[in-house]
Amino acid sequence: MIRSAEKREYPTLSQLWLRVSIHAHHFIPAEYWIDNVHDMETLYLPQADNWIYSEKNKIYGFISICDDYIAALFVDIPYQRHGIGKALLDFVKDKYLVNLTLNVYKENLQGVYFYLKNGFIIKEETTDIQTGHQEYIMQYCNNNYR
């Protein structure tokens, strides 16, 4: 089930974000993610619309939206490749009805392929100022937006 996240769940979401970030972004030192987990919980999550995928009071993943920008999409490691990320992405595509954009690290091949498979195109390649790593700016292209 997908539902709006509650503020009391932000610590759980930030820990899920930390686990998955370290796993998916092995090319960035873990210390970077550890140093930013507090900001994720206290700054970034409160600024976004956060939607979680949960069953039986267990959170399996979440997606965060700021305006038309997908700021986060994370599925806990044991539950990846079970359709949870796609369900969250499809949910926001239907709910927001805008031309969604996101940034994904170029070296995060699983993430890049996931977004390409789900209707996003690469619009630009840039460098993330904080990490120095290359990333793609991607945009969702449905029939209404090109």
Q: What does this 3D model show about the protein?
A:
- The chain has 146 residues and is an alpha+beta fold.
- It has helices at 10-24, 30-47, 84-96, 109-117, and strands at residues 2-4, 49-55, 58-66, 69-75, 101-105, 120-127, 134-140.
- The chain has a seven-stranded mixed beta sheet, sandwiched between helices.
- Helix 1 (10-24) runs antiparallel to helix 2.
Provide the descriptors you would attach to this structure in a database record.
146 residues, alpha+beta, Aminopeptidase, seven-stranded mixed beta sheet
Quick structural gist:
The chain is α+β, with helices and mostly antiparallel strands and 146 residues long. Helix content is 38%, strand content 32%.
Q: What's the assembly state of these chains?
A: single chain
State the end-to-end CA separation. 31 Å
Annotated CATH architecture: 3-Layer(aba) Sandwich
Number of helices: 4
* Low-pLDDT windows of residues: none
Helix and strand element order: EHHEEEHEHEE
The tally of strands reads 7
Described by strand count, sense and barrel closure, the largest sheet is: 7 strands, mixed
The spatial strand order of the largest sheet comes to 1-2-3-4-5-7-6
The level 1 CATH classification is Alpha Beta
